[in-house]
Amino acid sequence: MTIVEEEESKSRKEMKYESNNNTEHNNINNNNHNHSKNGTSNGHSKEENGKTEGGLNKQEMLRIIIQSLHQMGMSKSAKLLEEESGLELKDPSLITFFDSIENGKWEDAKSFFSKIEFKSEKDKKDANRLLFTQIFMELLDEGKVDEAFQVLRKDLNPVEEEDYDESIQKLPLLLLCTNQKQLREKGEWNGTGSETRSVLSQNIRNNLSPRYLMKEKRLEELLKQSLQYQVSNCLYHNTSDSIESNSLYHDHQCSKSELPTKCIKILKCHTDEVWYLEFSHNGKRLASCSKDSSIIIWDEDHFNNDSSQNKSPLSKEMILRGHTGGISRIAWSPDDSKLISCGTDFEVKIWDTENGEIIKAIDLHSNVVNTCCWHPDGNRFITGGDDKVVYLHDLESGEEPLRMWKINRITDLAILKNDKIVMLSEKKILITDINSDSTSFTM
C-alpha cells in the first residue's frame, strides 16, 4: 500500500469514528431530552428520593442552587441546570393552579390540584376543603343552588369522622338563603371576586410542601448558618472579624497560638490588691479599682509607650481618690464620660472621667456594696450589696432613690435594653422590670 492509500484509509476510519461518535452523542441528547420531557411530572425527576453521596436530598440541593444562580444574575446557567436536572424552580402546575383560582376557572384548578405537593395528607385535605368551600360559596352567590348542593354532597361531605371540620357544619344552612345579602351576612362572605380568591390562595399556600416556599437567598442563608456554627464551635476563637469575612473554602478554626499568651505590659501603681477593672466602651481607656481605695484610669498612650512599663501613670491618666475603703466594682457610663464606683465603705460615687471630680455621692447602703451598673440611657443606674437591697438612682435627683427592692444578698446586676433588671442573688437569678416593685421571675 502506498503512502497516499494509507492516508486515504486512515481518513476514512477517522470519518467513520467521528460519525459513530456523533450518532452516540445525538442518542444521548435524545435520551436526555426524552427524560426531561417524559420522565418528569410537575418538575420532578424520576429519582424522587435521590440522595447525594453525603445523604442530602438531591432535588432540594439542585433547587437551592438554581435559585442562587438566578439571584446572582446567572439566569442562563440556571436554565441549563433546570433542563439537565429536569427540575424547575417555579413549578408550572402550581402557577397554573393559582392562576385558575384567580380567574375562577374551577375545573382547571381541580385538575391541577392533584399535581401539587402538600406538607402532609392532612394539609392536602384541608386545602381541598378550602378550595371546594370557595366553589360552593361562589355558586350560591351566583344563584346556582343545585350545583352548590352537588358540591356540598360530593366534595365537602367528609368520608371519615377525623376529616370533619366545623366550618362545614354551617354550609347546608346557607342553601336556604334567598338573596346575596343574606348569604354574605350569614356566611361571613365578601362575595365572588379577587378579595376572597386571594384569601383562598394564601390559605392554601400555608399547606404547601416546603419546596414551594423556599426563602429568598436560601443558599446564602445556609452558608451563613454554617459559618456561625463553625465560629461557635471554634475552641480558640479569638477574632472580632464579622462572620461574613470567613472563607467558604475551608472550615473556620482559630489556632491556639493566636491566643494571648505573652505579657506585653505590666501596669503598676496600686498599692494593694486590684479587685476589678473594665475597659471603656471605645476601648481606649482602662479603669482599675483596688483594695487601696483608689481608682486609676489608664489611657491608650500608656499602653503604646514602651518606656512606661513598671512606672507611675502618665499625665493624661488619673488617680481617683474619695472612697475610704476597698472598691469592689466600677462601671463606665454608655458614653464613657462618667464612672460609677462602690465598695466596702458602703458608698456609691459617680466620677467625671475628664477631670476626675466627684459628680454625685450616695450613702444609702448599710453594708458592703458589691455591684453597680448603668442603664442604657446613661442617666439611671442601680446598686446592690450585702444589705439585701437594690436601689435605682438617677443623676438629676438627690440621694433619694427612684425605686428599691428588698431581696437577698446581691453579688451582681445587669440592666437590659428592654428595661429588665437581672440580679444574681446567692443561688438564684432574679428578673424584674425596672418599673415594677417586685421580682416577677426567678430562674
In short:
This protein has 443 residues and is an alpha+beta fold. 36% of the residues lie in helices and 19% in strands.
Detailed description of the structure:
This protein is an alpha+beta fold and 443 residues long. It is built from 13 helices and 16 strands. The chain has helices spanning 3-38, 58-71, 75-85, 92-102, 106-113, 121-141, 145-154, 166-169, 171-174, 180-186, 194-205, 218-232, 300-304, and strands spanning 274-279, 285-290, 294-299, 318-321, 327-332, 338-343, 348-352, 358-362, 369-374, 380-385, 389-394, 403-406, 412-415, 420-425, 428-433, 441-442. The strands form 4 sheets. A 4-stranded antiparallel β-sheet has the order 1-2-3-4. The protein has a 4-stranded antiparallel β-sheet with strand order 5-6-7-8, with no helix packed on it. A 4-stranded antiparallel β-sheet has the order 9-10-11-12, with no helix packed on it. Residues 1-5, 11-48 and 307-316 have low confidence and may be disordered.
